[in-house]
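Section: Multi-chain targets

For targets with more than one molecule, the full set of components is provided together so that the structure can be written out for the assembly as a whole rather than chain by chain. Components appear in the order listed by the source. The example entry contains two components.
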Amino acid sequence: QSILTQPPSASGAPGQRVTISCSGSSSDIGRSTVNWYQHLPGSAPKLLIYSNMQRPSGVPDRFSGSKSGTSASLAINGLQSDDEAHYFCAAWDVRLNGPVFGGGTKLTVL
Amino acid sequence: QAQLVQSGAAVEKPGSSVKVSCKASGDTFMKHGIAWVRQAPGEGFEWMGGIIPILGTPNYAQKFQGRLTITRDEASSTTFMELTSLRSDDTAVYFCGTLRVEVDIIGVEDWGQGTLVTVSS
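Its structure, encoded as tokens over all components, is:
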């Protein structure tokens, strides 16, 4: 059972906007920043958002992140077919002294 | 973007050990820590432990204390993860990743391709 809670699935049509939520606690999201990753099973996860809302070089600005209290969200604007993947959040847990992860959300582009 | 190359898939018997390697570019190896994370079938990702050069000693999740050893070989820019007393529920894909613990980023940045470890008699 994952520490951070995400919806198991999300979907949207091409061009639409979709948001994925990530809920944690005062020990993780409440005290640290949140990262978001894109993962295609069988390959290496890719960092999409770090420090709640920062995008690494090369990540399109269609992807954005936000955080409030013990929750965070990933928004994807202008959905494209190749956005179809698993997305998961992560935050540093001060009790674990390591990152905790969400269970992942499978995004389907209709 | 850091390049991390992991060793190949392994099949191990219950009670045995597995050692997975993660080779990083020289610059990455010296600048950043390495984290080990696993994903069991149908499950989310799970932090196992990591090593940060500036600290020198590894940090292990309590769940794996006594069974997990993370080591570094500077000569080959390779980090190793050894898990002992394997059980069937250790069957998972094991990932290494660059571990950043800094003001502007904290967590795993770049990831290896993953190594499937199957524990089966």
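Chain B touches chain A through 25 residues (CB under 8 Å).
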